[in-house]
Automatic annotation (TrEMBL):
GO terms for molecular function: acyltransferase activity, transferring groups other than amino-acyl groups. PANTHER family: ACETYL-COA C-ACYLTRANSFERASE, BLR7806 PROTEIN. Belongs to the thiolase-like superfamily. Thiolase family. Residues 265-386 form the Thiolase C-terminal domain. It comes from the Bacteria. Residues 5-256 form the Thiolase N-terminal domain. Keywords: Acyltransferase, Transferase. The keyword Transferase applies. This is Acetyl-CoA acetyltransferase.
């Protein structure tokens, strides 16, 4: 039976809003992750068969197939192609799936998967608002089929987060406690050096950036309680949402044939991959049915999973998932999540997988599960098995 192996995984530090990475061109940010991956893994870049990158809002410096431009910006062979995909926030997790599927099909042996995003240069939703001068208010306006099915219900992530908080009866206080834990865990991981092995420090105009910038030291429940809600009559505040940020990550995924041919050592095996959908209006609840589907298909359950990375786009996404999946908080985002560490959209899926792999290795865990909510009401699920 064919297998897909993760040989290496690396990421940049995550830059905060108006932070150290804000002026770095996305192609150079992606190139940094690619260069670090090639150097650390020892793979000959000429044998790479494709570079699959996730990126959202592919306009301006992120346009023109950023996977290809990042590879070329890294100085590697023009013969190696690249492709950029958009499954919204899950784009680089889907990139991992496509890379692994290429290997599992037998058509490819060496593929790089990853993602990049500079949210300081290209604001979230920029691609959706770019058509306003042409008379389109949003991607859904003018679609008779969409209007017939969903009416004028808001298609908005903040609205979706509010719907989830109300449906699962998650209070503002519960979300703020969760957000505080995210910051505390992230800061604890940073102070103990747990991210050092997975991060490739980057030189920005003579200053070396080696640590994630978003976590807020000194965050308290009292400070969170002072913030205004994002929507009138709602429960969500900026404190319980992910942060605007910049970053890139890349993984080397290969076949068993490539392991032998190039003398590579696998660090993990892709055990399961799937993607499912749910309501595009509620938008952010799909990780629940997607995880249930994945468990039913692969025969594992939450008790078999040693660590979970579920993207903290908003606190209620993770809290509702934990309630329905009956997952203990101890094994969920053990090193903090996007509320503390940031969410560079197209790069987050690969960043989460990189952190998950390193966490399993540090703690000796066997199985790790990754999932995340995505625009359109979708969710990818990936389960990896640590080797060695």
């Amino acid at each position: 039976m064919a297998e897909a192996y993760i040989v290496d995984a690396v990421r940049t530090p995550v830059g905060r809003k108006k932070g150290s990475l804000s002026g770095v061109h996305p192609a150079d940010l992606g190139a940094h992750a690619l260069t670090a991956l090639v150097e650390r893994s020892g793979i000959d870049p000429d044998v790479v068969e494709d570079v699959v990158f996730g990126c959202v809002d592919t306009i301006g410096p992120q346009a023109g197939d950023i996977a290809r431009t990042a590879w070329l910006a890294a100085g590697y062979s023009e013969a190696v192609p690249g492709v950029t995909i958009d499954r919204q926030c899950g784009s680089s997790q889907q990139a991992i799936h496509f890379a692994a599927q290429g290997v599992l099909s037998g058509t490819q042996d060496v593929v790089i998967a990853g993602g990049v995003q500079n949210m300081n240069q290209i604001p979230i939703g920029a691609a959706m608002t770019s058509a306003k001068p042409l008379g389109f208010t949003d991607p859904f306006s003018g679609s008779k089929g969409w209007a017939a099915r969903y009416g004028d219900e808001p298609v908005d992530q903040f609205h979706g987060a509010e719907l989830i908080a109300k449906r699962w009866d998650i209070s503002r206080e519960e979300m703020e406690h969760f957000a505080l834990a995210s910051h505390e865990r992230a800061i604890h991981a940073i102070d103990n050096g747990w991210f050092e092995k997975e991060i490739a420090p980057i030189d920005v105009d003579g200053t070396v950036v080696a640590v994630d910038e978003p976590p807020r030291r000194g965050t308290t429940l009292e400070k969170m309680a002072e913030l205004k809600v994002l929507m009138e009559g709602g429960r969500m505040t900026a404190a319980v949402a992910s942060q605007i940020s910049d970053g890139a990550a890349a993984l080397l995924i290969v076949s068993e044939r490539a392991l032998k041919r190039y003398g590579l050592t696998p660090r993990a095996r892709i055990h399961h991959m799937s993607v499912r959908g749910a309501s595009p209006i509620e938008m952010l609840s799909a990780p629940i049915p997607a995880t249930e589907y994945a468990f039913a298909k692969c025969g594992l359950g939450i008790d078999d999973i040693d660590a979970v990375e579920i993207n903290e786009a908003f606190a209620p996404v993770v809290l509702s998932w934990m309630k329905d999946i009956k997952a203990p908080h101890e094994k969920v985002n053990p090193n903090g999540g996007a509320i503390a560490l940031g969410h560079p959209l197209g790069a987050t899926g690969a960043r989460l997988m990189t952190t998950l792999l390193h966490h399993l290795e540090r703690t000796g865990g066997r199985y790790g599960l990754q999932t995340m909510c995505e625009g359109g009401g979708q969710a990818n699920v990936t389960i990896i098995e640590r080797l060695g």
